[in-house]
């Protein structure tokens, strides 16, 4: 992997770059489309390309569970298995430590606003999630069939090497946004130990292993983590974990963290990607970011448009002969009307999910494309 910065904005920290991998180049900043189980849900690989998706990210935990990395390896690796010729990332499984653990227990995501009964310190030093068991060596998950599965740093790297993505991530614990300082400090010690092990056991020369910076909303822990991960000489970095209690705090955490990472290496923001988040990350100097928002919202009948987010489950759209978005040049907006798309969603036809996924990904990728163009034109 090679990374080169082509231009630095004079108006923000945004920068344009080229990320080169064995499976092609990516112009950065860019949105990395989520393909959790080796597929962008409802789309073929060719369709993902048609809506400007330059790079995908798959999930180590889920592919280990089904179909298993050995099957993927026998198929020639992820690229051949899923018929994707472009660059690929794999997440380490660290996010599942959170999503199957405290995330499930508390009903929260990586960022949370206050709700009745919730406080920012619900996860204390000795707290333990109900559905996963976290130890200094790794994590025990309960699989979908009821069996127990251990995943640690060595196992995560071994799986990712067999999967064969261009960029892989060190195994870590993604912390919940309601954790105390003491809990996060202990978690960070585990993550740092696992990062060292991942660095030691990773041997594939055609893969770039990124280290992940954690520390939750505690800036001194973010600083310590950034410096520790940087000292291990990873070729790139992931900004992980929860990012505060609201989006304003998220921006502050990202900006602060990047101060302690070398400017010449790529930075990936894990699991953040609403449109306003993308713009924040872009102007702060993030190079790549992934999120399920465009695909997940599509499967719930929501379309992102120049007029805002539309909920096609509403009956009013059944009488509209307008396109989904007059300003959008995607194949969906040029072919189908709102009334038909709303009908497909309300009739629960799977074609509707595909069409909204195509549109949303095109819309998001075009949004990022325009941000890059603004920097090229010295407007951003």
Please provide a written account of the structure.
This protein folds into two domains: 2-291, Alpha-Beta Barrel (TIM Barrel), CATH 3.20.20; 304-380, no CATH class. An eight-stranded parallel beta barrel has the order 4-5-6-10-11-12-13-14, surrounded by five helices. Strands 1-2-3 form a three-stranded antiparallel sheet. A three-stranded antiparallel sheet has the order 7-8-9. It contains 14 helices and 16 strands. The chain has 380 residues and is of the alpha/beta class. Strand 1 and strand 2 (15-21) form a beta hairpin. The two termini are 28 Å apart. The protein has helices at residues 45-50, 60-65, 69-74, 78-81, 94-99, 102-106, 153-163, 181-201, 219-231, 247-258, 275-284, 293-298, 338-346, 350-376, and strands at residues 2-8, 15-21, 24-28, 30-34, 56-59, 88-91, 132-135, 138-142, 148-151, 167-169, 208-213, 237-239, 267-269, 288-291, 302-305, 308-311. Helix 8 (181-201) runs parallel beside helix 9 (219-231). It is 37% helix and 19% strand.
List the helices and strands and how they pair.
Blueprint lengths: L1 E7 L6 E7 L2 E5 L1 E5 L10 H6 L5 E4 H6 L3 H6 L3 H4 L6 E4 L2 H6 L2 H5 L25 E4 L2 E5 L5 E4 L1 H11 L3 E3 L11 H21 L6 E6 L5 H13 L5 E3 L7 H12 L8 E3 L5 H10 L3 E4 L1 H6 L3 E4 L2 E4 L26 H9 L3 H27 L4
Parallel strand pairs: 4-5, 4-14, 5-6, 6-10, 10-11, 11-12, 12-13, 13-14
Antiparallel strand pairs: 1-2, 2-3, 7-8, 8-9, 15-16
Strand arrangement in the largest pleated sheet: 4-5-6-10-11-12-13-14
Q: What is the average per-residue confidence, as pLDDT, rounded to a whole number? A: 94
Distance between the termini: 28 Å
Gyration radius from CA atoms, angstroms:
20 Å
Fraction of helical residues: 25-40%
**Helix/strand order, N-terminal first:** EEEEHEHHHEHHEEEHEHEHEHEHEHEEHH
- Helix/strand-derived class? alpha/beta
């Amino acid at each position: 992997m090679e990374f080169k910065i082509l231009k630095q904005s004079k108006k923000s920290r945004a920068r344009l770059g080229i990320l080169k991998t064995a499976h092609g180049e990516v112009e950065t900043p860019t949105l990395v489309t989520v393909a959790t189980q080796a597929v962008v849900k409802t789309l073929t690989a060719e369709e993902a390309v048609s809506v400007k998706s330059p790079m995908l990210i798959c999930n180590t935990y889920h592919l280990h569970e089904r179909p298993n990395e050995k099957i993927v390896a026998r198929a020639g690796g992820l690229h051949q298995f899923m018929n994707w010729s472009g660059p690929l990332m794999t997440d380490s499984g660290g996010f599942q430590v959170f999503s199957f653990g405290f995330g499930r227990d508390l009903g929260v995501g990586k960022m949370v606003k206050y709700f009745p009964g919730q406080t920012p310190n619900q996860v204390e030093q000795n707290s333990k999630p109900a559905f996963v068991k976290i130890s200094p060596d790794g994590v025990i998950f309960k699989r979908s069939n009821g069996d127990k599965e251990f995943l640690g740093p060595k196992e995560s790297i071994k799986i990712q090497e067999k999967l064969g993505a261009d960029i892989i991530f060190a195994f870590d614990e993604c912390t919940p946004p309601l954790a105390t300082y003491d809990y996060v400090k202990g978690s960070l010690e585990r993550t740092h130990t696992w990062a060292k092990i991942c660095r030691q056991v990773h041997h594939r020369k055609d893969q770039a292993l990124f280290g992940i910076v954690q520390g939750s909303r505690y800036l001194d822990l973010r600083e310590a983590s950034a410096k520790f991960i940087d000292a291990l000489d990873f070729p790139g970095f992931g900004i992980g974990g929860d990012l505060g209690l609201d989006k304003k705090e998220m921006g502050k955490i990202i900006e602060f963290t990047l101060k302690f990472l070398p400017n010449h290496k790529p930075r990936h923001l894990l699991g953040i990607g609403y449109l306003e988040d993308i713009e924040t990350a872009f102007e702060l100097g993030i190079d790549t970011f992934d999120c399920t928002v465009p695909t997940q919202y599509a499967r719930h009948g929501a379309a992102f448009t120049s007029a805002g987010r539309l909920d096609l489950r509403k009956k009013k759209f059944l009488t509209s002969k307008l396109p989904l978005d007059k300003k959008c040049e995607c194949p969906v907006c040029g072919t189908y009307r709102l009334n038909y798309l709303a009908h497909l969603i309300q009739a629960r036809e799977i074609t509707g999910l595909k069409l909204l996924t195509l549109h949303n990904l095109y819309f998001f990728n075009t949004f990022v494309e325009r941000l890059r163009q603004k920097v090229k034109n010295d407007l951003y």
